[in-house]
Amino acid sequence: MDETIEFVTVARSLDTSEMLILSARLEAEGIPSFVADANINQTYSLMSIAAGGVRLQVPSEFSVAAKKIIADVNSGLLALDDDEGFSV
After folding, report:
1. In this structure, what are the phi and psi dihedrals at residue 54, rounded to the nearest 5 degrees?
2. Can you give the pLDDT at residue 6?
3. Per-residue pLDDT, 2
4. What is the Cα–Cα distance from 2 to 51, expressed in whole angstroms?
C-alpha cells in the first residue's frame, strides 16, 4: 500500500530566491523541503501575488523543526560574523 505524505506550508514570500535559500538550509539540516509555485512567480509575477506568493513546504512531521530553523535564520542567529571573511 502506498503511503501518502502530507506537506504543510512553513513559509511564504514573493521572493523565490528567499524560499530557495531557506529550502537549502532545511535540506542541510536533514529536513526535506519543496518550493511550490516558484514557476508562477518567475513567469508571471502579478499572478504570484494573487496566488499568495511562493510557498516553502515540508512533510508535516518536520514542520515544527522547520519553523524553528526558519525563525533562527530570520532572527540572524545563523548569520555569518563579519570576521568570517571569505578568501578567493
Report:
1. -85, 140
2. 95
3. 75
4. 30
